[in-house]
Amino acid sequence: MAKIQGLYQRPDSHVWWMSYTTVDGRRVRESAKTTDYDTAKRILDDKRGKIARGEVVLPRLDKIMYDEARVDLRTHYETHKTRDLDEADARLTHLDAFFTGRRLATITPDVVTAYARARQMPTKRDDGTEKPGAANGTINRELATLSKMLRLAYEHGKLQRLPVVKKLREADPRAGFVTRDQFTSIRRHLPEELQVAMTVAYTFGWRKREVLDLGRRQYDAKAGVLRLDPGATKNRDGRVVHLTTELRAMLASQVQRIGELEKKHERVIPWLFPHLEAPHIGERIADPRKVWEAACKAAGQPGLLMHDLRRSAVRNMEQAGGRHEADRAQDRERLPSLRDRVGRRSEGCCREARCGQRDGRCHGRSVNWPGSVTFWSRSTAPASEGVLQLLD
Questions:
Q1: Which residues partner with 389 through β-bridges?
Q2: How far apart are CA 163 and CA 151, in angstroms?
Q3: CB–CB of 301/185 below 8 Å?
Q4: 162 near 69, Cβ under 8 Å?
Q5: How far apart (Å, rounded) are the C-alpha atoms in residues 368 and 238?
C-alpha cells in the first residue's frame, strides 16, 4: 500500500498521525485517532481541501476547552458592548465552577441538566448554615450565557454541533406592589442617600441601576429635571423627567450633603447617590439589597423587593388616568409583561412620566429621545378623578 506524504505512524503505536501546513504557514502535527489508514487519509484530505480553499483549519474540535470558549465570549462582550460585563462575570463565576477544564464537545444536554441540578441543590455556608439552591430563573440566566458561549464557538468553527440547552420552568412573575403608606414607612428606615434614591424609583418607576448610577451632572436643579443618558437604560433610550415638589427638596438636600462631604475629604464626588458613611464614603452604591431588606423588616413589610417600586409607579400612573402614547412601533413591545402585571388596558408603552400631586392636581412631563416629546398639563379636574390632558 503506497503511503502519502503527511501520514505516519510512531514506532510505539499503530495510530496514524497527520502533518500539514495551515493557511498562515504553521506546521501542525496531530493524531487522526484511528488505526485505519483509509480513514486517516480521508481526514487529512479533508483538512488539505479546507486549506486549499483558504479556510482556517483548527486542531481536532474535541481539543477545544470550555476555558477558551469563555475567553472568546468575554472578548465578544467587550468588543460589541452588548452586555454589562459585571453581570456577565457574575453568571460566568457559577459556570466556571462546573465547566472549567471540560472539553467543549463534551457539553451535551445531559451535562447541562447535571449543571442545573447541581445549582438547585442547597450548599453549606462558612458558618455551617445551609444556603438554599439557586432559583430556576437565576439558573436560566446562567444557561442563557452558556448557550451564547456555545453558539459563538459554533460560529467560530470550534464546535461541530450546537447542543440543545433546555431552560427550566420559572416561577410566575411577581406582581407585588408597594402602597404609599408602605413606602413611607420603609423609607424611614433607610439611610439618607437611599431615601432619596428610592423616592426617585418609586415616583418614576426607574430601575435600580438607572437610579443608583446617576451622576450629579444628570441633575439640573434650576430646571428641576433628572436625565438618563442614551445608552444608560435597558432599551438604550435617554429620558428626561421633571421633578415633583417633594423630590426637588430632597435632591437639594442631597446635593448639599455631597458638597459638605467633598469639602471635608477634599475630593470630587461625581455620583448623585454615593455612600455618605464609612467605609465607602463617596463611592457609588453597588448593591443596597441587604439594606433594603433590613428596612422592610423594620417597617413590618418583609419580602418586598426594590423592583416592586417600578411596578407600583406604573400602577400609580395608571390609576391617575395617564394616557401613555407610543410614538414608535417598538415601544409597544418593550414592557408587555409589566403592563400585564399592572392591569394595563390602554395600548402603548410604559413610558416614565411624572404624576405628582400639587394643589390637588395631576401634572408632569415626560421626554424620551430620540423620539417625540409628550407634555402633560394640569387638568381642570381633581387628581382623585385621575384625569390628565395630552397636549400637542
A1: 377
A2: 9
A3: yes
A4: no
A5: 6
**Beta-strand (E) ranges in 2-105?**
7-9, 16-21, 27-31
Q: How far is CA 52 from the centre of its chain?
A: 43
Euclidean distance between CA atoms 359 and 220, whole angstroms: 24
CB 242 within 8 A of CB 203: no
Q: How confident is the model at residue 82 (pLDDT cuts 50, 70, 90)?
A: confident
Instruction: Give the model confidence (pLDDT) of 160-215 as tens digits.
Output: 889 999 999 988 776 678 999 999 999 999 998 899 999 999 999 999 989 999 99
* 363 φ/ψ angles, rounded to the nearest 5 degrees: -160, 165
Please report which helix (H) or strand (E) contains residue 192, including its range: helix 192-204
DSSP run (H or E) holding 362: strand 361-369
Record the cell numbers describing residue 221, joined without a space: 436643579
Note if the bond before 279 is cis, omega within 30 degrees: yes
Q: Is the dihedral of CA 277, 283, 288, 292 positive or negative?
A: positive
Q: Which amino acid is at 247?
A: L
C-alpha R_g of the chain: 29
More confident residue, 65 or 337: 65
- CA pair distance 112, 192, nearest whole angstrom: 45
Q: How far apart are CA 91 and CA 70, in angstroms?
A: 11
Q: Which of 340, 119, 335 is nearest to 235 (CA)?
A: 335
Which residue intervals of 156-191 are DSSP H helices?
180-187
Contact (CB, 8 A) for 157 and 60: no
How far from chain centre, in Å, is Cα 27? 43
Cross-strand bridge partners of residue 220: 225
Average pLDDT, the chain: 80
Angle (nearest 5°) at CA 247 between 252 and 266: 30
Q: What DSSP letter does each residue of 99-116 carry, written as one string? A: HTT-BGGG--HHHHHHHH
Q: Is the pTM of this model over 0.70?
A: no
How would DSSP label each residue in 247-269? HHHHHHHHHHHHHHHHHHHTS--
Non-local CB neighbours of 334 within 8 Å, separated by 6+ positions: 235, 349, 350
